[in-house]
Amino acid sequence: MTVLGLSSVAEAAGPAGMARDLLSPGAKLIEKQAVTPPFAHILFCARNPSECQDNHGESVVTLTPDRLKELSSLNRKINRTIRGRNDDDNSMNGDLWQVNVKSGDCEDFALTKRSRLISMGWSSRALRIATAVTRSGEGHAVLIVRTDRGDLVLDNRFNMIKNFDKTDLRLEMIQSEADPLVWYNL
To answer: Which residue in 6, 99, 113, 163 has the most C-beta neighbors within 10 A?
Structure first.
């Protein structure tokens, strides 16, 4: 897992450059059949049931410049404050999903971002954890934010938020919008 944020031309251009890219319509993920959730997610929900509840909000967020600024700020803050480490390094129990940690791996970043956005009033239905494979073949997890401008990826490897189809990820599974305990193939 890479923890350092990488700059891009749009990010270097500041919020205006990022807004130009993300405020135009983007692609949306298409769910396929229901699948068994990652076992580590099942354990996470058993230990943290309040993190796995539907708050019955909107399933698509209207992406205003203020909301984009809020997302970008939170993504950078979490990427900067959680120290990256693999569960293999510190856990004899295998993959351990956690929220609001000082150090963790990709799903811990994604769960923390989701939790913080929900506490800021964002709808759980628009904030979904997804698993993926990176270009180098590494398993990865990210937060997907469903907006009226497409499905956006908040990734701990990058500070810039991108539409899912503009990332280096092959997305595999995602949480249901209506029930965080249900997952779908992509």
So the answer is: 113
Selection from 149, 138, 185, 142 nearest residue 167 by Cα: 142
DSSP tag of 140 = E
- The rounded distance, in Å, linking the Cα atoms of 42 and 97 is 9
CA distance 79 to 174: 21
Instruction: Give the closest residue to 104 by CA, choosing from 92, 115, 90.
Output: 90
Q: Which of 1, 2, 14, 23 is nearest to 160 (CA)?
A: 14
Whether pLDDT at 2 is above 90: no
Q: Please, which residues bridge with residue 151 across strands?
A: 146
Closest CA to 162 of 80, 84, 82, 72: 72
Find the DSSP H helices in the chain: 9-12, 15-22, 39-47, 65-81, 87-90, 106-119
Q: Is the pLDDT of residue 25 over 90?
A: no
> Nearest to residue 117, comparing CAs of 68, 48, 172, 65?
68
**Domain boundary assignment for the chain:** 9-185
| Residue 47, C-beta contacts closer than 8 angstroms, at least 6 positions apart | none
How far is Cα 80 from Cα 103, in angstroms, rounded to an integer? 11
CATH architecture of 9-185: Roll (3.10)
Using the predicted structure, report yes or no on whether residue 21 has a pLDDT greater than 70: no
